[in-house]
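Researcher: Here's a chain I'd like modeled. Treat it as a single chain, no partners, no ligands.
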Amino acid sequence: MDINPNDYPSREVYKLITGAVVPRPIAWVSTVSSDGQPNLAPFSFFNAVCSNPPTVLFCTGIRGADQSPKDTYHNVRATGEFVINFVTERLAAAMNITATELPAEVNEFEKAGLTSGPGKQVRVPHVVESPIHFECKLREIVTISEEPGGGYIIIGTIVHMYFGDSIYREGNYIDFAAYQPIGRLTGSGYTRVNDLFELVRPPAQIKPD
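Model: Modeled as a single isolated chain. Structure tokens:
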């Protein structure tokens, strides 16, 4: 089946992309508005960029309910800060509650029964129940499209990292059996990380100058 994305509405293209690009990690992004109102929302268009400086990105789309940018975008743009909390299987139901499109004055931490903790390097709270969170300062926002189906790439520099004792191991390793992260598929689908295998990478064939 050959498909020209220009021949399909953006919603159908979204279904095809999210069905092919799997599994996707979930950035559970906490922010605050300029007047201090907290917000928490998940984004599965998310990944790491590099480690020097430690950089991540996630994409926030145009809200389906009213075709406007999401609160997360407005908050990051106003404050220049955000926290990426990581979602475990135990936190999946709470994460799903925070995916609801809600008025800006609603506190998603409270609605999902979560505990907010103060930041170390940012003014944004994190999800205490999450075993990992990254505090980030905004580096850049790239506007892709402000039409329905479009959105913004938000790039942040990590200024503080937290790993809970339950999942952190000596030598800077993460215990995946204890961590139990989940990934996003398509539609209502998610996946667990419980069937691992290893491949040893062949040695480099390029010699330094």
